[in-house]
Amino acid sequence: MQTKNTQxxxxxYLDLSQLLEEYKGNHEENxxxxxxxxxxxxxxxxLLYLWxxxxxxRVTSHLKSETFLTHFxxxxxxxxxxxxxxxFLTGIGLLSYSGHEPVNIIYxxxxxxxxxxxxxxxxxxxxxxxxxLSRFFNLFFPLHWIEKFVEFLPFDNKIELSxxxxxxxxxxxxxxxxxxxxxxxxxxxxLMALILMVMAKDIAFGxxxxxxxxxxxxxxxxxxxxxxxxxxxxxxxxxxxLVEISHYFRLGERLDNEMIHNANKLGAWWQFLAMTTLxxxxxxxxxxxxxxRYGYQRQLNRxxxxxxxxxxxxxxxxxxxxxxxxxxxxKHLEIIPETEEQITETPHQGYPHIIGWNYSSSEMQLANDSxxxxxxxxxxxxxxxxxxxxxxxxxxxxxxxxxxxKSWEPPTMDxxxxxxxxxxNDEIDEIQLYPLGTVGRYYxxxxxxxxxxxxxxQALKVERVWVVDDAEQ
Amino acid sequence: MMQNSxxxxxxxxxxxxxxxxxxxxxxxxxxxSVQIGDTPGTTQVKRGFPLKVDGKIIYELFDxxxxxxxxxxxxxxxxxxxxxxxxxxxxxxIFIAKHRDDPRFxxxxxxxxxxxxxxxxIYVVDASKPYGAEYEIEMxxxxxxxxxxxxxxxxxxxxxxTEQWKRALGHxxxxxxxxxxxxxxxxxxxxxxxxxxQLKEEWTQPIKVxxxxxxxxxxxxxxxxxxxxxxxxxxxxTFVYSKDIKGESATKKEKSSSQTxxxxxxxNYEKEREKNIxxxxxxxxxxxxxxxxxxxxxxxxxxxxxxxxxxxxxxxxITGASAGAIGGxxxxxxxxxxxxxxxxxxxxxxxxxxxxxxxNNLYEVxxxxxxxxxxxxxxxxxxxxxxxxxxxxRALFHASVxxxxxxxxxxxxxxxxxASYTEQLIDSEMRKKLEKLHLKLRNKxxxxxxxxxxxxxxxxxxxxxxxx
Lengths: 473, 468
Ligand SMILES: Nc1nc2c(ncn2[C@@H]2O[C@H](COP(=O)(O)OP(=O)(O)OP(=O)(O)O)[C@@H](O)[C@H]2O)c(=O)[nH]1
Ligand SMILES: [Mg+2]
Known about the structure:
The complex is a heterodimer. Chain A is built from 19 helices and nine strands. By secondary structure, chain A is an alpha/beta fold. In chain A, helix 19 links the parallel strand 8 and strand 9. In chain A, helix 5 packs antiparallel against helix 6 (132-138), helix 5 (105-128) runs parallel beside helix 14 and helix 9 (168-200) packs antiparallel against helix 14 (269-306). Chain B is an alpha/beta fold. In chain B, 52% of the residues lie in helices and 11% in strands. A six-stranded mixed β-sheet of chain B has the order 2-3-1-4-5-6, with helices on both faces. Chain B has a three-stranded antiparallel β-sheet with strand order 7-9-8, with helices on one face. In chain B, helix 7 (186-197) runs antiparallel to helix 8, helix 8 (201-238) runs antiparallel to helix 9 and helix 18 (428-442) packs antiparallel against helix 19 (449-467). Chain B starts with 9 loop residues before the first strand and ends with a helix. Chains A and B meet through helix 2, strand 3, helix 18 and helix 19 of A and strand 2, helix 2 and helix 8 of B. The complex binds guanosine-5'-triphosphate and magnesium ion (MG). The site of magnesium ion has 5 residues of chain B, from helix 1.
């Protein structure tokens, strides 16, 4: 799932978190975006990153990451410098040779080897544990306390910083990452001091301890410390002879003499000390630093994916976008409401001509009987009749015409054409349009169906055309 | 993109005016923006509704205006010299070409065009009205296009002339199906697609794909709805309103205005959720009738709402008693005492009583920060045990109504058979699961991904049941 080519930064993380609060895009846009970046379809992290870059401009407020990074960088730079300086000064302090007493290499080893190893151990423990336990390990680091202290200092951007919420795991990795870096700088300071002192002064190194350790076993101990470089640089391992001549007791005059005697040889320790610093304080630290970098990046990637809204975004990247709607916008049809114009409630008892639109002759008879209406001539039009047949009927009649229509069927233009032929026939005095309901309902119509007919007729604005509306209100 | 434009299946929904063509298209295309109306001629131009997956068209439906001058078209066709069957379709093409600028045939051309470009025919009739011979003219024209076709019986009114129609349509269409765009369920929709797939062999596969796509889309919408409900529940249950106050303690006025503000926010969360749900299910135009929403009339904080969506007194007793603090007395006693009240009084089942008290103790009003200097009045999170159920009940009900709602409907949402929903929405088993979850959800610190996931599952199950 994770990618090697995208190196997300804390800035991207903060920016995405801010962006997602303001803008999420929509499924269509996000899916289109993902399809435009097919190459990364199995790489949500990169997709998110690219999406962020594309949409970052949408963040309307000030980017919180900028404040955060400025603050963070300033503090880190200051701390880095301090650690380097402290390392250097510690080195100077440890190697200060007054001329009265040799420099005890055990002190130096404590700072350049034991301390780093302990600190590396703690770092490793903190890395592999999580939650409370790792927080407990972190308490041992001075940096932890320094940062606590820095938080108390008044900064004008403090309020904005408090809005930035990083997960505890990420905070841990950030912390561990920085610990390694600062420790590395400290050790560089130390090494620099050592080299500087060795160059600028002649230092008589010695070793002294209250413990009962023979020269032989001390030499074995030192040799095992230096086992990594023993074969490469045998000179950087103190010989038994060197160990013997540098062993001193504060109260013994005897050895002092011997030391003075061998003063030129005592300087040979520096190579060993330099190598110890290089290997334990710098090289090992460097490796752990790399690890912490990796861990930090991994955590950052995880948190990136866990950002509120990120999963939804990823889902939208991977889910095909389905659309069912029409791309065309429809014009709204305006409806003019019907009025009471040209309406009659009851038909006459008899007509010279009765015409049925889309009715058959037998249906006409049934309707006439049921409505007790008589006609001198009863004709059917529309339906399967040809246009010509209809035309003939329309032109051959006169007087008042009753025109049956099926109320539930809407007036088509075909019907309107026929009606217009009737209107064009000047012999016709009046046309009464009678919308009938279905036989099943004894010809009773729905008011809304009749309304359709009324609107149609009223729109024609012809005084000779009426609608018979016998629907119960 | 252009090269496959000929290959995907197309369907033209045609027929007499006002027979529900647009309704059918609207329901199939899940699009509530289609103009549907009592007035014949509502649809004036053809309109394509492509089903697109990532921009690729799987099939396309066309809504068309109804036949207006079918007789003249057929008359023209018959006037032409008799042509062999294989070239009859060309005649229609000639008709279209010749009359393109003739306003009399505008509707006919609009509806015939997609068919002549290869669309299958879906002929819609209203089977609640009697069959008439005039329909044969339309069917005859459609037959002359030579395109595969089927008929849909739509029952708009109360009468039923299905048999009559089937007999007549059988002469012109191999497939006759009944489909009611207003009442059609998701499964009816899929069944209709299956029928459409049979129209032409090449269409079977793409329509199968379409069915899969639509199934996936349906599931996706269910998931999104559940996410929306869960998120909204979380927001409402954890909401805390706070306000700076001047005096030692809050005045009556400060208290009541804060309570109103608190309630308002909860109501806003609900509105926001409803809008999101409507959007998920493509019911955007419901917004227009928002005031008519009966759901709104039954206010969130009303007695009606509590009685419809909240738990019954008995259920509350159980819930309240086990969720609240009980001193020694169990549920058995509380219920075994004959009356619930007796049990609760003896046992001092605080939760049980509190749960029943209704909305006066919805929330605690606290004054905070006495020692820091500036005082704050805070309300929430909601302590009332019944409240989450009311909120959830309303959410599930609204979502299920929206999810099942046909896109052909243009009326407002109505809350029907309210009482019957209570049991269906939250049954006792679900309630047991919800009890603990609601308590945890309310507590922002204790709430984690797992709890939300568990809650999601319960809601999903309930919602899916409601959609069956
Ligand atoms: N009760 C009910 N009403 C329906 C049904 N189908 C359509 N209607 C109603 O019938 C009327 C016409 O529906 P439309 O979908 O606009 O019909 P149409 O065929 O597209 O009409 P035009 O575009 O005018 O040709 C509307 O008032 C619909 O609400 C149905 O299945 N049941
Ligand atoms: Mg229409």
